[in-house]
Design brief:
There is one protein chain. With about 130 residues, the protein is mainly beta. It has one domain (about 1-130): START domain (Alpha-D-Glucose-1,6-Bisphosphate, Chain A, domain 4, 2-Layer Sandwich), CATH 3.30.530. Helix content is about 10%, strand content about 50%. It has 2 helices and 8 strands; from the N terminus they run ββααββββββ. The chain has an 8-stranded antiparallel beta sheet. Strand 3 and strand 4 form a beta hairpin. The longest helix is centred in the N-terminal third of the chain and has 9 residues, at about 25-30. It is globular and about 45 Å long. The two termini are about 30 Å apart.
């Protein structure tokens, strides 16, 4: 797997492009299954746990990432559109200790696309922030 990232501060966007030696269907499964999603969501030193994962349109996922000192950062995701295995549209942000949205903090709107290639998949995650 290779990953490239691009940040555009003026547009308030960050884009990640990852290539995998697996089909779009297989990469989609990583998003569907909370245990698989936990393995790569968040930085390596802040592993994620998803106590709630409702991967369906209108569903919510609640998660937290645990830092090296044991502190926790809580977050949430709301799944807006799911076009299996082509695209995912979701909003996410920081949450309170129960994983509920913290209205004092901005949200991010993200679109994930999966493009099949010869022997693999290119996954692009394009996130737009309300503010910086």
């Amino acid at each position: 797997m290779t990953v490239e990232s691009t940040i555009d501060k003026d547009a308030r966007t960050v884009t990640f492009v990852a290539t995998f030696d697996a089909s779009p269907d297989r990469i989609w499964q990583v998003w569907e299954d909370a245990r698989q999603l936990e393995r790569w969501w968040g930085p390596p030193t802040w592993p994620a746990s998803f106590p709630q994962h409702e991967f369906r349109v209108g569903g919510e996922s609640k998660y937290y990432m645990t830092g090296p000192e044991g502190d926790k950062a809580h977050g949430w995701m709301r799944w807006e559109e799911l076009d299996e295995p082509n695209a995912i549209h979701f909003v996410d942000g920081f949450g309170d200790t129960d994983g509920n949205p913290d209205p004092s903090l901005p949200i991010t709107t993200s679109v994930v696309t999966f493009a099949g290639t010869d022997g693999g998949t290119t996954m692009t995650i394009a996130g737009t922030f309300e503010s910086i």
